[in-house]
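Thanks for the sequence, V.! I ran phosphoenolpyruvate mutase right away. Repeating your input here for the record:
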Amino acid sequence: MNKSTSTQTNPIIYVAMAADLLHAGHINILKFARELADSNNGKVVVGLLTDSAIAQADEAPFLDYEQRKIVLENLTLIDSIIPQESFSYKDNLAKIKPQFIVHGDDWQSGYLSKYRKEVLDFLHAHYPQDLEDKSTHPALVEIPYSSQINALGIKKAMNSLGISTAMRQARLKKLLTLKKPLRILESHSALSALIAQNVYVLKNGVRVEFDGFWSSSLTDSTLRGKPDIEALDLTNRLQSINEIFEVTTKSLIYDADTGGRVEHFIFSVKTLERLGVSAVIIEDKTGLKKNSLLGNEVAQSQESIEEFCAKITAGKRAQVTSDFMIIARIESLILDKGQDDALKRAFAYIEAGADGIMIHSRQKSPSEILSFLRAFRAKDSTTPIVLVPTSFNAITATELADAGANIIIYANHALRASFVAMQEVAQGILEHDRSLEIESKCMSVKEILSLIPGTI
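Predicted structure:
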């Protein structure tokens, strides 16, 4: 390669990458960067994406930052490694002012194109030459993307093989340290979990997706035509969880209602942990369980702080791994006992060993939830807070995270949506005495056959 006409001494060739699954595509880019550095008496600097940077736009990395750094440090193609704290290059470019940036040409479209534009804007400001004319100043060098081997393809192949129980279980706790908020979608079957696993949207160049599944006692009961009164025990619900785990890789949080008697809860913790569930949530009510959104319209009573703390402590003693989480759900706001009671219980439950707090409200306005978050975070800045905004649904997950929440659960929407769709189709068939008119409301037979690998 011809030497650049730039007068920069020892120019920096910058390559940003996650390198979670190092493969031939990465080596191809690094070899090109090395040749560029050698021909210009420069050095190759890799901006290694941090764990939190990767998690903001993708799933959590398999290897943490230090592990990935050790792998790259042993490559002679690289001179030095620095952290890149986000998918945006701006901070590192401003800091080290590289002469060349090397990247695969796959980011010319899609959600990464935003960051490509940031790079071009930086280079235009520092090198006003025609950046698209590589013969005059190849400040941005894009090489053909390795379509035959790439991290996305490898991850898809690995996901098709499944995930170990330990890896799935640990993912939730790891994600809590990397991104905020975590978005969790109710999944009552393997099919609904596949939807939650694969659906995503692009917002301002960032991929937004669900981070796991919620196994809801309400939807599990409703799916079987039973009332939401703890009519289904753990054994009845394990089959659905097993089916979800067979076809997905993300974490699952289990709704255990009150947890039952202490002796029963100990058994549940051992079973759920062995299965690979990441967390269990138990609520501080006692007696026959009634849905919280009914509030004081029905007879509901709260368990004493001492007894509920004893249940939490017993559950923590029963678990084997440090990755499994027990989250305490507080019903004080539901039962109109006020914020002071909710806060008193929250700190007592944490002292008893709870790994997180779920605070619930049936108000349409999020004001009492936001007030609780402010008061709680004034004393505790680290314990994860879980919210289920079924009633106060006008506020966004991002806004709740900014107020101090960590996990947002959409607790029954998948089943509620499926009911509406199935009812509409069933009525349409009866109304028209045929299915022609409702076909547009249904997934095509070809699509449903190709949805599950191995069907065709």
